[in-house]
Specification:
- The complex is a heterodimer.
- Chain A is an alpha/beta fold.
- Chain A is 39% helix and 14% strand.
- Chain B folds into 3 domains: 18-205, Four Helix Bundle (Hemerythrin (Met), subunit A) (Up-down Bundle); 276-434, GAF domain (Beta-Lactamase, 2-Layer Sandwich); 511-678, Heat Shock Protein 90, CATH 3.30.565.10.
- Chain B has a 6-stranded antiparallel beta sheet with strand order 3-2-1-6-5-4, sandwiched between helices.
- In chain B, helix 3 runs antiparallel to helix 4 and helix 7 (245-278) packs parallel to helix 12 (405-473).
- The chains are: A alpha/beta, B alpha+beta.
């Protein structure tokens, strides 16, 4: 794993979607590594380097989190709420990846700190087009505050 | 109020008698005076007559005495007996004459004495003469001659004459005194008459004043007050303060006015109440019942008013509401029929029941008497279409009360209104419940549909994505047929997604309050055309847009959705080989402004025109792409604004969709002309 590049954290409960998103990033040949987790709880574990991810390298905080809203155990809203009190974690940009433009209440997500929202396109080729755009903007162009 | 004068305390009858007496009394006095005068003059006349008689008598006596004297001298001189005739006459006539004279002065003592003196002198004269005559007959002439020579006879005559004259004079004096008195009295009577006439006039004037003040004045006041009250002026204190019949009449009239005013205000309140209780508020039937109890109670000013509703199924009363603090205590409690026989009688007979004294009732248990402490009760039936369904019970708990006919009539009328209000509220509540039930079910179904659509969308998308992933990742490893099938799977998934997206959009309409803003349809039309530009170019279509639209008051996105759907439809259903010709415009109809989108496409048969606005109805044009939900969205949006959308079409000629949305000018009342000139 390239230590200089911060990973992209993909939070998605559906295995097919998870795989396709990861695949799309790979197809798009983005430089950043992609870490996939199954729900909000795992994502939180990853960020806080606990549970399954206790051995995570401290510098591997993600450059961007790609978040699904509708998930079991801990959904996207709850995840956003949990992340919010910790300034370091709250500074990581969150991009919502939703099924429908009417999915839940987008404004609530934005209020909770989401930075962007993308509708899942329903076509793998289109997904391959979207993935590098996300990487390009959030990992290359966007300037995140320096981590510890 | 002034202290009433003693006079004003008298009855009208006495007053009139007194006032008339004022006038009659002087008349009576005058008559008495006149009668007195008349009597006096009559007395004078009598006196004159008496005096004349006395003069006749004295004259006859004097003549008698003179004749006797003359006859005596003749007899003595010639000795002829013939000369003695007067003497004998006098001897016979003197007695009646003197007694008559005496009779006439019998009341006057002095005169009587004088008459006696005259009598004595005359008798003495006659006796002397008789003796002398006797002596002459005997032949002795000497005493007679001596007598004549001595002049004794004439001297006696003179004395008698003197006496008689004296007697007469005194009588004359009496007469003149009497006459003078009579004259004085006549004068007094004259002045008295003038005085009395003036007095009568003055009294007549005073009496009329008094009459006006005590009788006609108050009567006029009463009449005026009655007229004023009759013409709708409110009753006031009548300024008649006497204690007689008029005063009592005034008090009675005041009382009457007060009562009429009270009744009028009761009637007015009654009508206001009718409206008030009929209004069904958020508190529904319960609120209506409570208002009925309160207003009915205060209308008859009783301590307790109960709305008792008869429950057929259990054969008991249910207390619908009660006035005042009783409400919380009694509301929804149940009363047994046997313990409320009076109300039950009102229910079964349908007629008001009045009991002035509940304590005198023989029943062992009367709920209203024993539990609520009612002293008097008025139970009025609440009449429905199938007879009485309840009772309004008015109870007086503090003291016994006599319910008047008016109370009964008023309460019955009120009960009739209340009954209508209750039935109305019951119907309304039943309808509300039915409606609410239906609404709930519909909303539940809709939520279910939306959730299902949501749940379906993920798998559909995933299916399409996986198919496309296979196509991309395993390109060349599938044969041509498998590749085609994968393409179909992908398209089907995407179609499914699109449809679900449309369903969700339709479901979302109306659930989110969109901002209403002034929208210029011309701008929205431009956006729509821009969105379809490639489409239009490909089809070689012509789109004509009218150069002016009225501003609409709606959500911009909604208008966009409507126009976008209609324009896309117009482009879509074209006749083969005829490039679409679409016209977007506006027509002003009698009282509304209608926007339209017209095409020259395949048209819609009139039998199908109803169906097209329903979701997923596509009229059998399976070859034309689309979700079949566009027109349903159009209809739903238009209906959100209480607008109308309809279609006019002729197969193979074309279709026109018309729709109305609220005009922006409508809100401000700006006339269309100005709007047009300004834009």
């Amino acid at each position: 794993m390239d230590r200089r590049r911060k990973p992209i954290l993909v939070v998605e409960d559906d295995p097919a979607d998870r795989e396709m998103i990861a695949l799309a990033f790979k197809r798009a040949e983005v430089a950043s590594p992609v870490v996939t987790v199954e729900d909000g709880q795992e994502a939180l574990d990853y960020l806080q380097a606990q549970g399954r991810f206790w051995e995570r390298h401290p510098e591997d905080l993600p450059a961007v989190i790609v978040l699904d809203l509708d998930m079991p155990r801990m959904d996207g809203f709850e995840f956003l709420r949990r992340v919010k009190p910790t300034p370091d974690l709250a500074a990581i940009p969150v991009v919502l990846l939703t099924t429908s433009e009417f999915d839940k209440d987008l404004s609530q997500s934005y209020a909770l700190g989401a930075k962007s929202c993308i509708t899942k396109p329903g076509d793998f080729e289109r997904l391959v087009e979207v993935a590098p755009a996300v990487h390009e903007y959030w990992c290359e162009i966007n300037r995140a505050p320096k981590g510890k | 109020m002034r202290a009433p004068l003693p006079f004003s305390r008298l009855s009208v009858h006495r007053k009139v008698t007194l006032i008339l007496a004022f006038i009659v009394l002087p008349v009576v006095g005058m008559m008495a005076l006149y009668l007195n005068t008349l009597r006096q003059s009559l007395a004078v006349q009598e006196e004159v007559d008496r005096l004349l008689e006395i003069q006749v008598q004295t004259a006859s006596i004097l003549a008698m005495v003179v004749d006797v004297q003359d006859g005596f001298r003749g007899f003595v001189l010639v000795r002829n007996e013939k000369f003695l005739e007067p003497f004998y006459t006098a001897e016979g006539a003197f007695d009646p004459a003197i007694s008559k004279l005496k009779q006439m002065v019998r009341d006057d003592h002095e005169q009587l004495q004088r008459a006696s003196q005259i009598e004595a002198r005359v008798r003495a004269l006659l006796q002397r003469k008789k003796r002398l005559i006797d002596a002459v007959r005997l032949g002795d002439l000497r005493p007679a001659l001596e007598h004549i020579e001595s002049g004794e006879g004439p001297n006696a005559l003179i004395a008698i004459r003197e006496d008689l004259r004296n007697f007469e004079n005194i009588e004359k004096q009496h007469l003149s005194a009497q006459r003078a008195r009579a004259e004085r009295l006549a004068l007094v009577t004259q002045y008295g008459l003038v005085g009395v006439v003036i007095g009568i006039l003055v009294l007549w004037w005073l009496a009329s004043l008094l009459l006006a003040k005590t009788i006609t004045g108050p009567l006029a006041t009463l009449t005026a007050t009655a007229q004023e009250f009759g013409s709708g002026r409110p009753g006031a204190r009548i300024p008649v303060f006497s204690t007689d019949e008029l005063g009592r009449l005034a008090r009675t009239m005041e009382e009457m006015q007060a009562r009429i005013s009270r009744h009028i205000s009761q009637m007015e309140a009654f009508h206001a109440i009718g409206q008030d209780i009929s209004t069904i508020g958020p508190d529904g039937l319960e609120g209506v019942l409570k208002r009925i109890a309160e207003t009915a109670g205060s209308m008859l000013s009783v301590d307790l008013c109960l709305v008792l509703l008869w429950d057929e199924t259990i054969g008991c009363w249910k207390v619908g509401a009660a006035s005042g603090h009783w409400h919380d205590l009694l509301c929804r409690s149940v009363l047994i029929r046997e313990e409320t026989p009076i109300s039950f009688k009102a229910l079964t007979t349908g007629r008001p029941q009045v009991v002035d004294d509940l304590e005198a009732r023989p029943e062992e248990v009367l709920q209203i008497r024993d539990r609520l402490g009612g002293k008097s009760l008025l139970a009025v039936p609440l009449m429905g279409p199938k007879g009485a369904f309840g009772v309004l019970a008015f109870a007086s708990t503090n003291e016994k009360r006599v319910f008047t006919d008016w109370d009964v009539r008023l309460s019955q009328q009120f009960a009739n209104q209340a009954a209508i209000a209750i039935l109305n509220a019951r119907l309304y509540e039943a309808a509300q419940q039915r409606g609410a039930g239906l609404q709930n079910r519909l909303e539940e179904l809709e939520r279910y549909a939306v959730n299902m659509a949501h749940d379906l969308k993920g798998p559909a998308r995933r299916m399409a994505e996986l198919a496309s992933l296979l196509q991309v990742d395993y390109k060349g490893r599938f044969d041509e047929r498998s590749d085609r099938y994968l393409g179909w799977i992908r398209e089907t998934g995407q179609q499914l997604m699109a449809r679900i997206e449309e369903v969700l959009r339709l479901a979302r309409l109306g659930t989110v309050r969109e901002t209403i803003e002034p929208v210029d349809p011309a701008e929205v039309v431009r956006e729509v055309i821009r969105g379809c530009a490639s489409h239009i170019e490909r089809l070689g279509a012509q789109v004509r847009v009218v150069d002016w639209f009225p501003k609409l008051a709606c959500n911009r996105v909604h208008l966009f959705q409507v126009l976008d759907n209609l324009v896309r439809n117009a482009l879509k259903f074209s006749v083969d080989g005829r490039p679409p010709d679409v016209e977007i415009g506006v027509v002003k109809q009698t009282n509304e402004t209608v926007l339209f989108v017209r095409d020259n496409g395949i048209g819609i048969p009139s039998s199908e025109q109803e169906r097209i606005f329903k979701p997923f109805e596509r009229l059998g044009h399976k070859d034309v792409p689309g979700t079949g939900i566009g027109l349903a969205i159009v209809k739903k949006i238009i209906e959100l604004y209480q607008g109308r959308v309809w279609v006019e079409s002729e197969p193979e000629k074309g279709t026109t969709f018309f729709f109305t949305l609220p005009l922006y000018g409508d809100l401000t009342g700006v006339p269309m002309r100005q709007e047009r000139a300004g834009s």
